[in-house]
Amino acid sequence: MLSTLGRSAFAFLSYLGEVALLVRDTVLLLPHARKRWRLVLGHIAEMGFRSQLVVTVTGAFTGAVFSAQTYFQFHRIGMESAVGPVVSLSMFRELGPVLAGLMVAGRVGAAIAAEIGTMKVTEQIDALRALGVQPVEYLVVPRAVALVISMPLLVAECVGFALIAGWMVGTRVLGIDEAFFLENMRRYTHGNDIAWALSKGFVFGIIIVFLSCYEGLNAREGAVGVGRAPTEAVVRASLAILISNFFLSFGLNIIFPTI
Amino acid sequence: MSEPTAQPKIEVSDLRKRLGTQEVLRGVDMKIRAGETCVVLGRSGCGKSVLLKHLIGLFRPTSGQVLLDGLDISELPESELLHVRRKIGMLFQSAALFDSMTVEQNLAFPLREQGIEDEKEIDERVHEALDMVELLGAEEKMPEKLSGGMRKRVGLARTIVGRPECILYDEPTTGLDPITADSINHLIRRLQKRLRVTSVVVTHDMKTAFHCGDSVAFMHEGGIYFHGSVNEIRSSTDPIITDFIEGRSGDTD
C-alpha cells in the first residue's frame, strides 16, 4: 500500500520534472522562434483563430445563463442592479479564463498531442533529428509562442461575448434597467480585473501547450499509444488548469489587488 | 578487410546498449572504410536497427564508442550532434516522410534547415535528387498518396538531397513486393557508384545483401558474429550463418 503510494508519488514527481525540462529546452530555444515565424503564424491560425467559435459560444451562453441565474436570486431581494458587476467580475476573474482554457485544452491540446504523437510513432521525429533539426525547436517552440499569444486573446473574446450576452439577457429579456446594469458593471470592473483574465489566459496557454506537447513527444507505439496521448493531454491539462486557477487567484490578488 | 593505414570512416568499439531490462547490444565492434558499403544482416530483433540508430546518434550507448571520422559521437551534446548528423543521411524503415508536406517540401526541408536560401539552388537540388530516384513529376504529391515503394524512393531522395558523406539504410526493402524491392536494390547500388558515399545497410533480405554489399556483417545475439566479404559469407559453413542465408528455422511440421 505504502510502496504503491510512494511509487505513484515518484512517478508524479518525475513527470513534473520531465515537463520542467521540456519548458527549459523550449525557453533556451526561444530565440529560434524568429526563423520559424511562418510556422508560428500557421499555428496561430489553427489554434487561435479557429478556436474562436468554440470559445465565444462558450462565453456567450455562460454569460447569458449566469446573468439569468443571478437575476433570479437577486430579484428576490431587489438587487437586480448588481447583476451586471457580478457577471462581469466572475467572468473576468474566474469563469472566462477557466472556461476558455478548458475548451482550448479540449480542442487544441488534443490536436497537438495527436499530431506530435503520430509523428513520434511514424519515426518523423527521429527523421527530424536525423536531418539535424531539434524536435523541440521545430515542434514545441512555434506552438508555445502561438498559443501564448492566442490564449489571452481568446480569453478576452470569451469574456467579451459573455458580457454582451449577459447584458442582452439581463436588460432585454429580464428587464433590468439598462443604465443601472451598465453603470454598475463599469463602476465595479477595473483594469486589474482585465489583467486577471489576461494573466490567467497566458498561464493556461503555457499549461496547455506544454502538457500536450509532452504527451505527444512521449506517445507510445501503436494505435493504443497514439490514442492515449490526446486523452491524457486533455485530462491533465484540464485538471492542471482547474487546480492552478485556485492558486493563481491567490497570487493575482497580491499582484493585482482587488480595489 | 580494412586497410591498416587509412582511418575508418565509421568505427564502433565495444558498443553496449540496454533498453529497459534487455541488453540489446552486447559489445559490437566494427570498422567501415570510406566508400565501402557494409550490409548488416541478422534476424529480426537482433539489434540491427538499434545499432544503426547509434551510428547517427539517435540512441546513446550504455557504454562503448561510435567514432565518425575519428570523432566520438556517443558523448557529444545534442546541439553538436545536429551538425554531425548533417554529414549522415538516414533512410528510415517507414521512410518517415513528413506527412504535412508535399514531396517537394519534404526534399527542400533539409536544404532550408542547412541554411540554403537560394530558391533556385533548392529547386535544382530537389529536382536532381528526384531524378536520381526516378520520381520526377511527383513534386506536388502528398506522402499519403504514394505507394510503399515510392515513399521509400522519396525518403531516399530526401536522404541524398543534403549530400551526406554516409547513408544509413534501415531495412530498405522490407514490406515491398519482390520487383519493387529489386528496383530499390538497384537504386542503392547506382547511388553508391554515383555518389561514392559510405553506406551501412541494415536488412534481412539476402538479395539486398548480395547485391549491394562490399562487406557483410552478420549480427547474432547482440554482437557481430561474422564480418567479411560477400563471397566469404556465401561460402561459410557455419550453421548459424547458413541457416540464416537459406532461411531454415530448424522447426519441423
What does this molecule look like?
The complex is a heterodimer of chains A (259) and B (253). Chain A has 259 residues and is mainly α. Chain A has nine helices and no strands. Chain A is elongated. The model of chain B has no long low-confidence stretch (mean pLDDT 90). Chain B has 253 residues and is an alpha/beta fold. The longest helix of chain B is centred in the last third of the chain and has 18 residues, at 178-195. The radius of gyration of chain B is 18 Å and the shape is globular. In chain B, 37% of the residues lie in helices and 25% in strands. In chain B, helix 6 (178-195) runs parallel beside helix 7 (206-212). The interface between A and B is medium-sized, with 13 and 25 residues.
List the helices and strands and how they pair.
The complex is a heterodimer of chains A (259) and B (253).
Chain A: H1 2-28, H2 37-48, H3 52-76, H4 83-121, H5 124-130, H6 135-173, H7 178-188, H8 191-217, H9 222-255
Helix pairs in contact in A: 1-6, 2-6, 3-4, 3-6, 4-6, 4-7, 4-8, 4-9, 6-8, 8-9
Chain B: E1 10-19, E2 22-32, E3 37-41, H1 48-55, E4 63-68, E5 71-72, H2 78-85, E6 88-91, H3 103-113, H4 119-132, H5 148-161, E7 166-170, H6 178-195, E8 198-203, H7 206-212, E9 215-220, E10 223-229, H8 230-234, H9 239-246
Parallel strand pairs in B: 3-8, 3-9, 6-7, 7-8
Antiparallel strand pairs in B: 1-2, 1-4, 4-5, 9-10
Helix pairs in contact in B: 3-4, 3-5, 4-5, 6-7
Look at the helices and sheets of chain A and give the structural class.
mainly alpha
Number of helices of chain B: 9
* Shape descriptor of chain A: elongated
Q: What structural class results from the helix and strand content of chain B? A: alpha/beta
Number of helices of chain A: 9
Rounded average pLDDT of chain A:
94
The largest sheet of chain A, given as strand count, sense and whether it forms a barrel, is: none
* Average pLDDT taken over every residue of chain B: 90
Low-pLDDT stretches of chain A: none
The count of DSSP E runs of length 2 or more, i.e. the number of strands of chain B, is: 10
Sheet with the most strands, sense and barrel status of chain B: 6 strands, mixed
Radius of gyration of chain A: 21 Å
